[in-house]
Give the backbone structure.
Amino acid sequence: MGELLFGIKDNSFLDTMSLVHFASGLGLGFLIILFLKSSFRKIYFKLGFIFLVIWELFEFFLRFLRVYYPFLLEKLKFIPASWAANESILNISSDLIVGLVGLLIIYFTFTLKFKFKSK
């Protein structure tokens, strides 16, 4: 049961790559606020979630290439082979959730900062 929650890379709910997805959520949240100068909840979470889903679809596309068109994937040498690794649905879902947690932390950090500044 413990392996289902943590441990097995690309199969468990949390694995070592969860830290990367968390950091991606933090960085993405910061970039959205920085470039759009917006911490509006609707825009922020829609954009953040769309980018996280696009990333997971990109990883799925790389897995598709690995299975059906490996010669194309070999030509894309700048893309690490680990990005094309098989992932369980549980792990893909947790990647999105962990990324959203990173987005939430940046969102609340910036909104609380601006609330205290305005008082």
User: Anything to note?
Assistant: The chain has one domain: 7-112. The two ends are 49 Å apart (CA to CA). The chain has five helices and no strands.
